[in-house]
Amino acid sequence: MVISIIAGILAAILILFSIKERMRMKRMRKEWDVIGESKSSALSESLAGLVGTAGGIYLSLIMLTTFLEIDLPSRVSLSGVSLEPMAAISFILAILSPYINRMFQGLKRLRYK
Q1: Which residue in 54, 45, 38 sits closest to 22, CA to CA?
Q2: Main-chain phi, psi angles of 76, to 5 degrees
Q3: pLDDT value at position 54?
Q4: pLDDT band at 41 (very low <50, low <70, confident <90, very high)
Q5: What is the mean pLDDT of residues 52-62?
Q6: Which of 23, 64, 87, 98 is deepest in the core (most CB within 10 A)?
Q7: pLDDT at 38 over 60
């Protein structure tokens, strides 16, 4: 029970850091909206981007496992928490994606110096 609470808190912290990184990236892009349009906050856009990215990864993983005919369990239980494995993997990859993008941008800068 304690392990599942700690895992939940850790997952929430990772999600918050991922959303914060997405918000930072959004601010750096400096997209100028047309005057008079309703504007959504950086938080809502970052959260929508996180869910959209996770959904795209999920669909890709489902198509890959269907194509390769890989048999996976429908549910995986970790410390009393039951998860669908493809959804969990896609959500973890979506959380990590801004950090991976940042790492690749840093590597590009090093390569072109």
Answers
A1: 45
A2: -125, 135
A3: 93
A4: confident
A5: 94
A6: 98
A7: no
Instruction: Give me the residues paired with residue 82 across strands.
Output: 77
Number of Cβ atoms within 10 Å of the Cβ of 111:
7
Residue 15's pLDDT band, with cuts at 50, 70 and 90, is confident
DSSP 3-state assignment of 92?
helix
Residue 76: both structure tokens together? 């995986």
Burial class (CB in 10 A: 0-12, 13-18, 19+), 69: exposed
Rounded to two decimals, the pTM is 0.65
Task: Tell me which residue of 85, 98, 88 sits closest to 16, measured CA to CA.
Answer: 98
Shortest CA distance to 90 belongs to which of 64, 63, 55?
A: 55
| Look-up of token digits 């981007």 | 49
Q: Which two tokens stand for residue 60?
A: 């890709």
- Crossing angle of helices 2-29 and 42-68, in 10° steps, is 110
Whether residue 35 is predicted with pLDDT greater than 60 in this model: the reply is no
Are the CB atoms for 42 and 23 separated by under 8 Å?
A: yes
Amino acid at site 82: S
